[in-house]
Amino acid sequence: MKYSYFPGCVTPLRENCYELSARKVLAKLGVELVELQGASCCGYFLDSVDHLSASALAARNLCLSEESGTDMLTLCPTCTGFLTRTKKELSENSGFNSKINEVMAKVNKKVKLSINPKHLTRVLIEDVGLEKIKQTVTRPLSNIKIAPHYGCHIMRPSDEIKFDNPENPKLLDALIETTGAKTVQYLDKFQCCGAPVMGVDAKMSLDIARSKLQNIKESEADAIVTICPFCHTQFDLNQSKLKEEYGDNFNIPVLHFTQLLGLAQGFKPEELGLFENRVLVDGFLAKLKPQEVQA
User: Fold this and answer.
1) Which residues pair with 147 in a beta bridge?
2) What is the pLDDT of residue 290?
């Protein structure tokens, strides 16, 4: 299996350990990543200001992937969503397609709509498969409980993404359980992390994160697992801020799913960038059985 790798903005700027661990586990699964030379922002952040420019950015990235001859793999649900939305609009609106390709012609490119943007979880579920993932697990993480955080954009808007059930999703739970870990239920499990409103109302954003962290704390989960770099930053980076603002001492480790899977596949914590996480993972690693981790 081969995919062009679209890095996006947040992962390389704030969550290097996400990419590091993703590359490790994907290689173990036989997935090859093709580098997209010259890839830019997906365009999402510009869309509310200038739809044409935002769509042109997305279209150029789609062109780069088309030139590689492979579908595109992303680690960010927001990137996946905006690239998918752009492709849909270009395929359904011939006038807009012509306008975008006029822009693309200036950089000697043309959108052919021949590839699909796919989030990592979709690749793992639909292309790799749960059984193959289980076959790569050498150290089942049977001694820990995980609180899955789905986020908003991995399934929504559902008429465009068409992945899992947005009202009652289960696929992240299924992925986590391939590692041998147990998933826990908690109040507001499927609610937003609060990150999207940070730029508008920082207090509201932190309050949303705080509420979710309180619910997760009550579930007695050993860690939170995310599949979005925004969500990871919101929970991982802001626990220290919540301690300053409210005196909360959650101290809940926040792992990228790829870090959890990497541990189960036998990688050492430092190979997965676990010590780059802001909330210390030492206590989490100590809960694993001795044969499950080699520090």
Assistant:
1) 224
2) 63
